[in-house]
Specification:
This protein has two domains: about 140 residues, PurM-like, N-terminal domain (60s Ribosomal Protein L30, Chain: A, 2-Layer Sandwich), CATH 3.30.1330; about 150 residues, Alpha-Beta Complex (Phosphoribosyl-aminoimidazole Synthetase, Chain A, domain 2), CATH 3.90.650.10. The protein is built from nine helices and 13 strands. It is of the alpha+beta class. The two termini are about 30 Å apart. A hairpin with a 5-residue loop joins strand 12 and strand 13. The strands form three sheets. The chain has a seven-stranded mixed sheet. The protein has a four-stranded mixed sheet with strand order 3-6-4-5. It has a two-stranded antiparallel sheet with strand order 1-2. Bound molecules: magnesium ion. Magnesium ion binds next to helix 2 and strand 8.
Length: about 300
């Protein structure tokens, strides 16, 4: 299957000026900005674990595998350059599945101008596995890390949260453009993307920065999907916004003198909302109406 798929794939891969050597040799060659840092990230999706078996639409699986990687580059404010795609497929019907996976990626390849520089394909008796590695580069504005949050910083999020299981986990648009714009115009101390759930991903920032946070839970933007999931599955819409994974929105930690400007500018096509602030004491807390605070247990998808 491999040679058949690779010749099919090569015929569909346009030449890209960023690749001085495209797929077809032992390795591809990527042109990078002199002095830029190379930013690398990888995600693996496997049938039966990360998506249903069979998924119904292999194109959606392919799109998601690439989009997740772009979201991780966005979380660092890195500019995407290229991707490597590897698929491990069932022996029966594998070629058609590989083609659907790749076709599902094509719109994102075009939208974010991120050529597929190569990859690998193989078949076995097990379920399908899709692995994407994205390559990006740092810009002159630097990188966002998880470790940069400081006391008094504000906690902001893009978009609205929760209920991604109803479809958003497949059709989300990674916040690449938004991240690059914010990094060019505003001071951001730390960031991450919401893959495992708002409270869990924020807890990762808090741990890396050795600080805590207090959330005004009443200000968390709750998606219509979170309300629908709460009605059908149970739990409150807020619990879904705090703990559902795969929103792929950004958590941004913004200095206190920068947050008001960012919030009044609203420079993105999606809303930016302030939901809390960073405190010196470790842990995640919820601010009550009377000003006291109670511990908030981080919830979400644990790997
Ligand atoms: Mg991430």
């Amino acid at each position: 299957m491999e040679s058949e798929f690779l010749s099919w794939l090569r015929a569909r891969l346009p030449e890209h000026p960023r690749l001085s050597l495209g797929p077809g040799d032992d390795a591809a060659v990527l042109n990078m900005q002199p002095g830029a840092g190379c930013v690398l990230t990888s995600d693996l999706l496997s049938e039966g674990t990360d998506f249903e078996s069979p998924p119904g639409d292999w194109g959606k699986v392919g799109r998601k595998a690439l989009a997740m990687n772009l979201s991780d580059l966005a979380a660092m404010a890195a500019q995407p350059l290229a991707a490597l795609v590897s698929v491990l497929l069932p022996r029966i019907g594998g070629l058609a599945i590989a083609q659907q996976i790749y076709d599902g990626m094509c719109p994102l390849v075009a939208e974010f101008d991120i050529p597929i520089a190569g990859g690998d394909t193989n078949s076995w008796e097990g379920p399908a596995v899709v692995s994407v590695t994205a390559v990006g580069q740092t810009t002159e504005h630097g990188l966002w890390l998880r470790s940069g949050a400081r006391p008094l910083d504000r906690v902001l999020v893009t978009g609205s949260l929760g209920g991604s299981i109803l479809g958003h986990h497949f059709d989300f648009v990674p916040r690449v453009r938004e991240a690059l714009l914010l990094n060019a115009r505003y001071r951001i101390h730390a960031a991450t993307d919401i893959s495992d759930g708002l409270s869990l991903d924020l807890a990762n920032i808090l741990a890396a920065s050795q600080v805590g946070a207090t959330l005004d839970t009443g200000r968390i933007p709750i998606s219509p999907a979170a309300r629908r999931v709460a009605r059908t599955v149970g739990g409150t819409p807020l619990e879904h916004a705090l703990g559902d994974g795969e929103d792929f929105e950004l958590i941004l930690i913004v200095p206190p003198d920068e947050a008001p400007r960012l919030l009044s500018d609203q420079p993105l096509p999606v809303p930016l909302t302030q939901i809390g602030h960073i405190i010196p004491q470790p842990g995640l807390w919820e601010r009550q109406a009377d000003g006291s605070r109670t511990p908030l247990q981080p919830r979400g998808y644990r790997h």
